[in-house]
Amino acid sequence: MATASVSTPIKSHTGLFSSRTAGGRMPLTPSPSQRTTPVKISSSPFTPEKSDGVHRAASRSVYGGNLTAHLRASRANNHRDSPKSNIARVVSTPRKVLELGVSNFTLTGTGAHSKAASSSSSSSSSSSSSSTSASSPNGNTKKKTTAVKKKPAKTTIAYKGDRFIPNRSASTAYSDGSVKLGMREGRSSRSRTGSTDGSSVLASATDDAISALESLSIGDRRRDDSDNHDSHDDDDEASSYSRPSPRSAAYRETLANACGVNLNTRILQFKPAPPESSKPVDLRQQYNRPLKPAGAANSAQFRRRIATAPERVLDAPGLIDDYYLNLLDWSSGNQVAIGLERSVYVWSADEGSVNCLLETSPDTYVSSVKWSGDGAYVGVGLGTGEVQIWDVAEGVKVRSMFGHDSRVGVMGWNKHILSTGARSGLVFNHDVRIAEHKVAELVSHTSEVCGLEWRSDGAQLATGGNDNLVSIWDARSLAVPKFTKTNHKAAVKALAWCPWNLNLLATGGGSYDRHIHFWNASTGARVNSIDTGSQVTSLRWSTHYREIVSTSGFPDNSLSIWSYPTLVRNVEIPAHESRVLHSCLSPDGQMLATAAADESLKFWKVFEKKPGHSQALSSASSSIKASSGQQMTIR
Amino acid sequence: MASAGPEKDKSKTHKLSLKGSAKLVAEFFQYSIHTILFQRGVYPAEDFTAVKKYGLNMLVSSDDQVRAYIKKIMSQLDKWMLAGKVQKLVIVITDKDTGEHVERWQFDVQILSKPKSSKSSSKSRSAATASAKDQENESSSKSSDAAKTEAEIQAEIAALFRQITASVTFLPQLQGDCTFNVLVYADASSEVPVEWGDSDAKEIVGGERVQLRGFSTQSHRVETLVSYRLVE
């Protein structure tokens, strides 16, 4: 057992082969793997006998002392003995071998396979021991055990061979037992010649070895035949193996120790892949979360509360129920003008007072009203096609402008330019400062123009008509529209330019269309759409929420507030008893006024500012002339 | 029923049997997995709900898949813990894109040799007579110096979780999508179900290591170590 300290893993393989054949040359060189084998070393040539006949070996081993003689005798005989007989014997013994091998296995750390290897190594060592005739009687017994071991090892060896040695070598490996097979073979032959046993023996051994080598592929049994040779081989092997091979258990152990790895521990991983994260996580978001949600309107979680009851309701007797007219407007001076049949009334939101600004001649009616940007003048379109401009403070008409031969249903101011759209489909631009007021004629629509909106910077004009067209005009070239969009399937009255994105235009269609389309006015591309489910009569962007409010006719007569760009309907307020015809925002952007066919005018605080809320958005909108900070009141 | 008395006594003195201790440690592992997944953003914060545990609000994933996954791990871990096979539990966070291990939480488990615990084993108690009760009481009172009350253990665990939570302040920002793996350093003799396989240690090459707090029960001592990739 002293040899146990020596470590050479390779031998184990050889041992398999040699052990059976050689009958234990143990003395040669103890390998670490052979540690178990040192006992075997004592074993003498009997080992081959063992291979020949396990039973014999066992009995002989018991006897011990006689073994060498027996072995030699047996060798000659044994060589040719068929492995089969050995195998049978082997079967009986393998358990012991395994036990011996176990320690080796643990050393190698390869597990069950390693056990086989170790057993093989032990067997090899035993064979080597056997080869040394000097082996003690005890050794014989050991040999037997080893031989037994060897045999099982052989069976197991096949595995080893697979592991350590490629193909052919595996078979040879059996004989030699290790990777070094080729070398061993050569050496073995040499060693055999050189071996003390004697040339004749050697020769026979070599023959046997050769046959064994040839037969190796055939099976383990032949190894037994070549026991003598094997023993020689083993010696050689042992000598050659004196250096530790990386496969040796001892080597591994030392390596493991050096690396601080515990061979008794397995690192186990739970193999199934963890479930995918539902979305990418940005920890910065998680840890730098603002105390208050920044964009209150952005997430449904923090959706703001919207008052669903009107702030105030006024009567609007005589309001004409006509989709194509525009009879309501709120000035930057906080005054509301409304056209009621033949009259225009101005209601001052600050004072709560109502004044009748004008009354038309009985043969016509008011078809549109529009405040100038500064809130000082109001433009009034009449059913005759006449356009009047009134100074509200003085209560006097400043001028009348003629040109249209049909009613003027819609108007829009851009500084000193008043654009008017008529039932004829024509749109005129009037410079109200000069006598020859008509400065441009915009020809695009073939049916009544009912929607008209200047962009806040005055660079573009959008018009919508009863011909289902939306035309977008460049203020610098009004000969032809920049874009003409045909997506709507009904008259387009509702038009609104986005206050925070000047290129964004929202348009809403009539009863057969019910859609709100969003356009990029630079490219003409449609960027979004909403199916509202009802006639869209007007659209207004909030100046400080990312929202847009639409008013609708049949069937709901409601206000809807939509988040943009998510297009989520934040709230729908059933506003009136009949269709909502007109709407306008207060100059501070918080209040919406709606006029409906039920002859009422209602005020809704739908865009109420939270105290301290950022006003950047409203300030960005240049269309709101009044300072956003100024609180507007209604009396 | 004689054992019931001692059991109660035991509970009064908050002694934990080896089995109880193993369960406690396994439960700790479960919460630490959830906590790390939350704190390190492996899964979105909305997937987690707060649960009262250890006197803290522990965040536990409410995602069915994640829960099932951790449950599977825990079912096996419980067995290994009871058998005393677990030497380390490691949670490795890996960058999905590069496959690089970016963070590694290691919990070292040490099974304390405890002569007292053997005394306190339920078997001996059940066999014990009334006189044994007294012994139990005596032993428990003796051990009370060394042994911690359950409240103390809970406090230690709570302190450890607070430290894990606080560690996000020095751990580097995890970039990109990450996933995680659970490793168990088990005795070589452990029975291994098919879902578990041998793995390398998934160590972080050239990583920084920070030793965190630990806690101990009567039978186990748990040490925590986090290692993470240094960001240039």
UniProtKB/TrEMBL annotation, chain A:
InterPro entries: Cdc20/Fizzy, WD40/YVTN_repeat-like_dom_sf, WD40_CDC20-Fz, WD40_repeat_CS, WD40_repeat_dom_sf, WD40_rpt. The keyword Cell division applies. Residues 1-21, 31-46 have a biased composition (Polar residues). Residues 314-604 form the CDC20/Fizzy WD40 domain. WD repeats lie at residues 359-400, 442-477, 573-606. Keywords: Cell cycle, Cell division, Mitosis, Repeat, WD repeat. Residues 1-95, 108-154, 167-248 are annotated as: Disordered. Residues 141-153 have a biased composition (Basic residues). Residues 219-232 have a biased composition (Basic and acidic residues). Residues 114-136, 191-200, 239-248 have a biased composition (Low complexity). Pfam families: WD40_CDC20-Fz. The keyword Cell cycle applies. SMART domains: WD40 (SM00320). It comes from the Eukaryota. Belongs to the WD repeat CDC20/Fizzy family. This is CDC20/Fizzy WD40 domain-containing protein. It comes from Remersonia thermophila. The lineage of its organism: Eukaryota, Fungi, Dikarya, Ascomycota, Pezizomycotina.
Automatic annotation (TrEMBL), chain B:
Residues 19-226 form the HORMA domain. It is found in: Nucleus. Keywords: Cell cycle, Cell division, Mitosis, Nucleus. Residues 116-147 are annotated as: Disordered. Residues 116-132 have a biased composition (Low complexity). The keyword Repeat does not apply. The keyword Signal does not apply. It comes from the Eukaryota. This is HORMA domain-containing protein. It comes from Remersonia thermophila.
